[in-house]
Design brief:
The chain is 26% helix and 41% strand. By secondary structure, it is α+β, with helices and mostly antiparallel strands. It folds into 2 domains: 2-49; 54-181, ApaG domain (Immunoglobulin-like, Sandwich). Strands 3, 4, 5, 7 and 8 form a 5-stranded antiparallel β-sheet that branches. Strands 1-2-6 form a 3-stranded antiparallel β-sheet, with no helix packed on it. A hairpin with a 5-residue loop joins strand 1 (54-64) and strand 2. The longest helix is centred in the first third of the chain and has 29 residues, at 21-49. 12% of the residues are buried.
């Protein structure tokens, strides 16, 4: 800040020496008001638009597997840049947990807390930059389908979570998406 004032001191001294006293104060006041206006307009309008805006979606599907009592599990994952600045993907982490179905004792609905589902048995843990290592320009969208083969199991909740870190300059944004099903390769699964 001091360097800026030093750089501005020479032009301001020239303006001060070459103008009349009343107009000097009017000019100084106008400069202060203009500087304040420019700063607040940038802080309120432009700066938020330059933030990293990442949209992550996921969708889970299953199909019969290559041999009896197995199935393919497909996790479709899409990432899009909804901001005005580019970013790079720093990391992608895919995890899945299987949890017992909750016991419902009454006719009262029970909230399904995905935090509780994360306490189940972890069945997938894939942490690799190669999962979606790319640069995203503004408006760009890309996706991938991840495939696993599961053995048939008793009915349970299967929760998939995708965690992404996007980097734009020094700004790091953490984004997560979750999707779950109670029929991932269970006896309820239909061929």
């Amino acid at each position: 800040m001091i360097e800026i004032l030093r750089a501005l001191s020479k032009p301001l001294k020239w303006i001060w020496a070459n103008t009349e006293p009343l107009s000097k104060w009017i000019q100084v006041g106008a400069l202060v008001v203009a500087a304040y206006w420019a700063y607040t307009r940038f802080s309120l309008d432009e700066k938020p638009a330059l933030e990293t805006r990442v949209r992550v979606t996921s969708h889970l599907t299953t199909e019969p597997g290559p041999v009896p009592n197995t199935c393919y599990v497909f996790l479709d994952y899409s990432l899009s840049n909804q901001g005005v600045s580019s970013f790079d993907i720093k990391s992608v982490h895919i995890r899945a947990w299987r949890s017992e179905l909750p016991k419902v004792a009454t006719d009262t609905p029970r909230f399904i807390d995905t935090g509780e589902l994360e306490r189940g048995r972890q069945v997938v843990d894939n942490n690799s930059l190669e999962l979606l290592d790319m640069h995203f320009a503004p408006g760009e969208t890309s996706g991938r389908t991840f495939t696993w083969i599961f053995s048939k199991q008793k009915p349970a909740f299967t929760l998939f979570q995708v965690d992404v870190e996007a980097v734009s300059g020094k700004d790091i944004k953490h984004i997560s998406t979750q999707t779950w099903s109670q029929d991932v390769c269970t006896s309820n699964f239909r061929r």
